[in-house]
Amino acid sequence: MIRSFCLGDGIDHIYTTKDNQIWTGYFDEGVYGNYGWKKPIGNSGLVGWDHEGNIIDDGNDRKLTGECLALNVAANDEIWYFIGMDAQIGLMNENGEFQFSTDALGFQTFAVNGDAMVVHREYFDRHHFFELIKKADSYEIVQELDFRKPDGNPLQPQLTSNRADWLLFLDGSELYYYSIFDVFSHYKLSV
Q1: Quick one: pLDDT band at residue 157, thresholds 50, 70, 90?
Q2: How many domains does the chain have?
Q3: What φ, ψ does residue 72 adopt, rounded to 5°?
């Protein structure tokens, strides 16, 4: 072991960047407290760390705080996150902090490519996939997607992950990869 440090509890998502930053997204117990925390480390919902375990962004000055249901570290300078209570998508990049409303509620993983997103929501063992497009200050659902396996059965992943413009699904012993880069290349890419 090189080093150890405490990131708190109630961690739902954790990603690293190429320059060794660590980003942790917290669910309700990490935000509101459990196990005797007076002020939980993850009370903002999203915290950034350096590789030594020092907090570089505690999130307390961020416009958008709360339970972080989904997180996507798309690049060193592009942190996307979804705060469920307010149904808001947040973006932090070199140009500042931005927030977008959405009609896509409760998603846990998502791929993003500028003005386009594909989000995955699991609710009571039912999986839903939606295509979203940015319109002004919101990401709106364009359509529900129907992902099928080669045998024609619907994709029912037990585990999902995301990074930048791709989604990764584990369905039984099968692993599926989906990228929105080529699919949405006809949309204007800007944030």
Answers
A1: very high
A2: 1
A3: -145, 110
